[in-house]
Amino acid sequence: MLRPLDPRHRLVTTKYNPARTWTPENAVGIGGAYMCVYGMEGPGGYQFVGRTIQMWNRLRQTESFEAGKPWLLRFFDQIQFYPVEADELLKLREDFLRGRFEADITETTFKLGEYLDFLSSIEESTAAFRHTQQAAFQTEREDWKALGLAEYVSEHETAEITEQELPEGTEAARCTMPGSVWKVLVEEGQKVEKGDTLIIEESMKMEFPQLAPMDGYISSIHVKPGDEVQAGQLIAGIKAFAPITH
User: Model's pTM, two decimal places?
Assistant: First the structure.
C-alpha cells in the first residue's frame, strides 16, 4: 500500500462495488486513501490510474531483483512514477525482466524528525486541503444516494434462484457462502467420498473448497465456472451407492 508523504497530495476514491473478477498484472490503482500496484493477475476493486513495470521477477536475478528476493519493493520504499507511452512501457517490461533495463533506485535515509518538521510547516494548508476534500466527498456521497448508487444490490438478491428438483434418494450439495465458481472438479457419474472437493469458489480474493456431504456418485451438476452463487445454492446432486446384496 502506498501513500504520498505530502498529505495535501492524498487522493480519496471509492472502491468498485462489486469488485472486478480480473485485474491485469502491474495495474496501478487507488482505493480509499491508498494506492497499490497489483503484482499479479487477480480480482480487485481499486480505481485504475495507470500501469507500470513488474513488481516480481520469476525469470532471473538482475540488478533490481537480488538473489532470493524476486520482489522489487521493500518496506518504506519511496516510489516516483513518470509518464511513458504505451509502446515504451511494453518494451520496458520486456527488458526489465531480462536485465536490459533497470529501475532507478537510490539509497536514502528517511529522517522522522525532519519529516515531522515538514508536516508542522504545512499544517495550515493541509487543514484547508482536508476541509475541501471532505466537503467534496460528502457532496459526492449525496449524489450517489440521489442516483441510487449508495449501495450495491446483487441480482441474486432481487431474483429468486430457481432449482431443479432432485430425484428421490439424491442428496443436494450446496454452497456454504456467496461468491463465484472458479473451478468445477467433478463430472456426472464420478464417484466421490464425503469431504471431497466438488468445486472451488472464489470470494474476497480467496479460494474456498465446497465439499461433498456424503459418499456416492455425482448424478447432476448445477453450476459452471464463472457462475455467481449464493449461500445454500445447489451445486450438485449426489446419489448414494446402491447397497450390495447377496
Answer: 0.58
